[in-house]
Every structure is written in structure tokens, then in C-alpha cells.
Amino acid sequence: MIDQIKSHSFKYERLQHLGTNQPLTISMLQLVFRSITQTLCKHFVASCQVAYSTAHSAQVNKCNAGGMDKIISCFNKCPDASVRLICFPWAGGGSIHYARWAKALNSSIEVYSVRLPGREGRTKEPYFQNMQEIIDEVIGVILPQLKEKPFALFGHSFGAMTCFAFAEHVKKVYNLEPIHMFLSGASAPYSEMRLQAPKRSNLSDQEFLMWVTSIGGTPPEILANAELAKLFLPALKADLCVVDNYRCSKPSTPFLSCPVSCFDGKEDAPHDLQAWKNMTSGEFTVQMLPGSHFYLKEAANEKYILDHITKHLETAEMDYL
Length: 321
Description:
Strand order of the largest sheet: 1-3-2-4-5-6-7
Structural class: alpha/beta
Oligomer: single chain
């Protein structure tokens, strides 16, 4: 830009010496200064565009990082991990239970625990109304990570159904699939048993409270305290509304090739676990463990599940490599 201004100055000097004793006219001055002004304006606009582009990129990166931290709990970031385990919460659940699994699993497995709106640090955000909203939000922040390295999925109850919807979507839209699916405490979403199940979100508050008490998993002191129950139950009911309204077609042919491991509590209400086999051509297993619906909160059962996950993901890593 300095060179261009010097060029205009040189033109100005030449104009001063045109002819013998010829004075510099006003029109000549206007020509010189108009040219200088246009050059300055062009460079000013270009500089502003560069500055805006740089600031905008930085803001987008900051928002993406913030979105990840808001939606995904990762207690132990492992950039050198060879596989990620993405965990979806049960109905009404937060992200902490699964996020702490990072302390029990080895560093080759990085745990991403999904945090849905209306709980933990997102209490002021409205609950999602349907399954697609959940899938869109999660994919919106972790799609680059899905493409970066192998991933596996874990979900219990409502989380198991979310795992299915997530796996189906990423396979159909991005041709990506997990290296293993770990599903717990739920019938396949397209099974007759699930389709005939009563809609819990339609229950009255009193009936709903009685049902929540019967399945266990929630500290009695919370359910016995009306104020605490008001904080906990809305998220649970909102997630069950998503479950009640979620519909999907039974796969005519398997759309996955990865292994699927199913778990359930022996004392829980019966679930059609065998129906999960329709979605994969890979190995399929079922493990029944002692306990009711929240059997996985028992220390011995949790250790069994984590050992199973570790064993199969380490084996999958070798196969992937």
C-alpha cells in the first residue's frame, strides 16, 4: 500500500512540471486525491475482512469447544486413546455415572458421557421433545471425533434405545458404525414387547411416582421429599415421553456388522433382548446379572460390565489395526 501511495505522489510531482510554468489545476488535484482515497478505502475494507474472518473462525472454534464441554462429560481426556466409548444416559439420568467409568477403564479407552438438556449444568434448557433432537445435537459436536478413531456405544434402558437411533443414523448418513454396541435393560425399540408396553409418560403424578419407586434406582429420600422429587421427576418424565413417541422400523437386513452385547437384571421386568440381533450380522451375546432394573449400579455388576467392555474393546482394537 505504501508503494502505491508513493506512486500517486510521483504522479502528483509530474503533474506539477507539465509544460512551462503551467499551474496545477483543480481538476488535476481532484484526480490525484480521488485515486489515493480509492486505494486507501480498498485496503481498509480488505483489512477489515481479514480481521473479521480471523475473529469469526476463533469464535466458531470457541463455540464448538464450548458445545462439546456442555454436551459431553469427559473426566479423563486421552488423546492417545485408541477407541472412544460413548455412553447415553438412562431416562432422567445425567452424565456423571458413566463419566466416572474413565477412572476404572484403561487409558486406551476414552469415555464420552452424554449430558442432555434439563439436568446438571443444563438445568435451564428445555427438554428435548423427540429422539431426533437428541441425535442431531450429539452428532453436531462429536462427528469429527467419530471420523477420527473407532468408537463404541453403551446405553441402559432409554440409553439403549438412543444408542440404536444414533447407530442407525450415523450408518445411514455418514456410513460410520461402532466397533461394538453394549445395550442394557431394554427391549429392542422395534420389538412387539416394546411396542405393546404401557406409556409411562401418560401416568398421573401419583401413579408415576409409584412406578418410579417400584423399579428402584432412585434414592428413597429423594422420592419421599416433594421438593426434591419436583427437581428430579420432570427430566425423567420428559425422557419417557421421547421413548413413548419413538418409532422405528424393524431392520429387514442387518445394517451393522459389529458385535452386540446385551445385559439385563434377572429380577427386572422381561425384555425382548433377542430382538436386538436383527440389527447386526456380527456376534451377539446376552448376559443376565443379579438385580432389578438398575442392577448395573451394584458394584459387582458394574465391575463385570466394565471388564466385559475392556476385554472386547481391546480385542476390537487389535482387529481394527
